[in-house]
């Protein structure tokens, strides 16, 4: 909820909304970066498991990736 004074002043309202938008954008970017990091870690863990000769099922259990995704990783990275 915005302040009533801000609602009556167009310039303050615009500044307030721009600040809110910047905060939201940063939260979205941060969440996206975190998610991308999680996915990259899963892929690296799958690669490590494949190199050690672990079964696709075990790698899937550890990484929560599907067998199909692990097979794609195997073809692409090894």
Largest sheet: none
Mean pLDDT: 85
What order do the SSEs take from the amino end to the carboxyl end, as H and E? Answer: HHHH
| Spatial shape | rod-shaped
What is the number of helical segments per DSSP (H or I, 4+ residues)? 4
Proportion of residues in extended strands: under 5%
What is the SS-derived class? mainly alpha
In terms of quaternary structure, the protein is single chain
Give the distance, in angstroms, between the N- and C-terminal Cα atoms: 54 Å
Helix content: over 70%
- How many β-strand stretches? 0
Which radius of gyration do the C-alpha atoms yield?
Answer: 22 Å
Unreliable segments of 5+ consecutive residues: none
How would you describe this protein?
- The protein is an all-alpha fold and 78 residues long.
- Helix content is 85%, strand content 0%.
- The relative contact order is 0.09.
In short:
Helix content is 85%, strand content 0%. It is mainly α and 78 residues long.
Top keywords for this entry?
85% helix, 78 residues, single chain, mainly alpha, 4 helices
Helix-strand layout with pairing:
Blueprint: H1 4-8, H2 10-51, H3 56-63, H4 67-77
Helix pairs in contact: 2-3, 2-4
